[in-house]
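Tokens for chain A. Residues wanted.
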């Protein structure tokens, strides 16, 4: 009797020490970095944003840089690879960069023109150090660095051309998150979480078999309606309500939140991306400036270096569409730029995703709303020049 009482008061603790708990909670085996949900959320968020940015071909001019719209610009921005879209092409490149540290793209040319830019699967191409530089091995062939696009992140201090990625930094954090997920799954699926314990006289005949115990439950504790009271003999039964262990008792939630924030900090994404914080516009815009743009510039510089021969051309991606502006902000800024002659009416309409209208391609100045080229034809200026009032 006493032995039964001692066991019944702590069923969750007993389960945590059992072989069933070991099988459910202990995580073994190898798990890829890309299999971690938090890592996937951070990587996908960065990759999707960069993949959605238009790739501009720009030219340096004495009066500022202008956009070039020719066959090369169309090829890189519209269909760099015949097997996928530009967005998916760029998203794949960024994901592999972040997960493995390196991504190789093989240019296919014909007659000096680019036909395809084929992203190679991770691990298919290998780098071999050659003095300070390196060579690339792919399918038994050797390529020099200028024959293949090589996108990398987190450069190795000893070999800056090789990206280290974040595998080593994330190893322990992702292991903790994996263990926490297994613990939560095993704990929530356990049968050792009763909300009520019924103390029963062990000498009761029915208590000696499973069928007898079920019969006791049906006879004394089963009710036909919710809220109906139980009628039990005081000499044989004692009902005791307990509070089973929860995830809070195991400190799972706190440790998971901390590890999620660590993953977010490593990838430099806002905490809300991995489910550990709230969205804030200022934080999002800072993330675009300090994380998205450096990665984008690294990709564009590699493409400029190896795909372009002209010294006054370069590739560039504009982040303006990623800043989460609402229509009110865009319209207010556009109005101020329009009345000061900095933008045309159709450029403002383009910001608001509206089609152009005839007559809005000229710049206007201040309250008179006249074309900029006619600013000297105002009547009040002519009157002053002629001595009129």
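Reply:
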């Amino acid at each position: 009797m006493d032995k039964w009482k001692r066991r019944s008061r702590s069923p969750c603790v007993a389960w945590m020490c059992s072989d069933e708990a070991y099988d459910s909670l202990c995580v073994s085996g190898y798990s890829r970095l890309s299999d971690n949900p938090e890592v996937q959320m951070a990587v996908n968020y960065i990759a999707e944003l960069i993949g959605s940015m238009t790739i501009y071909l720009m030219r340096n001019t004495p009066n500022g840089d202008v956009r070039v719209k020719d066959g090369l610009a169309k090829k890189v921005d519209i269909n760099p690879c015949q097997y996928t879209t530009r967005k998916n092409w760029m998203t794949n490149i960024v994901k592999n960069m972040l997960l493995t540290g390196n991504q190789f793209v093989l240019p296919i040319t014909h007659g000096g023109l680019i036909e395809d830019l084929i992203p190679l699967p991770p691990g298919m191409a290998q780098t071999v150090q050659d003095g300070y530089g390196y060579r690339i091995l792919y399918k038994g062939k050797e390529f020099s660095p200028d024959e293949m696009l090589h996108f990398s992140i987190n450069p190795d201090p000893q070999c800056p051309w090789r990206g280290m990625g974040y595998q080593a930094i994330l190893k322990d954090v992702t292991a903790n998150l994996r263990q926490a997920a297994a613990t939560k799954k095993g704990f929530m699926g356990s049968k050792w979480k009763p909300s009520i314990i019924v103390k029963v006289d062990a000498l009761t005949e029915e208590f000696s078999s499973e069928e007898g115990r079920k019969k006791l439950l049906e006879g004394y504790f089963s009710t036909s309606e919710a809220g109906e009271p139980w009628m039990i003999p005081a000499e044989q039964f004692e009902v005791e309500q307990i509070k089973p262990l929860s995830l809070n008792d195991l400190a799972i939630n706190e440790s998971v939140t901390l590890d999620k924030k660590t993953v977010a900090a490593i990838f430099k994404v806002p905490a809300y991306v991995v489910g550990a914080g709230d969205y804030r516009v200022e934080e999002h815009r800072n993330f675009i400036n300090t994380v998205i743009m450096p990665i984008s510039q690294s990709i564009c510089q590699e493409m400029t270096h190896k795909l372009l021969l002209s010294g006054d051309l370069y590739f560039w991606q504009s982040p303006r569409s990623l800043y989460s502006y609402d229509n009110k902000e865009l319209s207010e800024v556009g109005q101020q730029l329009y009345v000061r002659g900095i933008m045309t009416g159709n450029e403002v309409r383009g910001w608001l995703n509206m089609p152009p209208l005839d007559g809005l391609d000229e710049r206007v100045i201040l309250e008179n709303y006249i074309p900029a080229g006619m600013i000297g034809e105002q009547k009040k200026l002519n009157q002053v020049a002629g001595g009129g009032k």
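Residues 12 and 245 are 6 Å apart (CA to CA). The first helix runs from residue 2 to 8.
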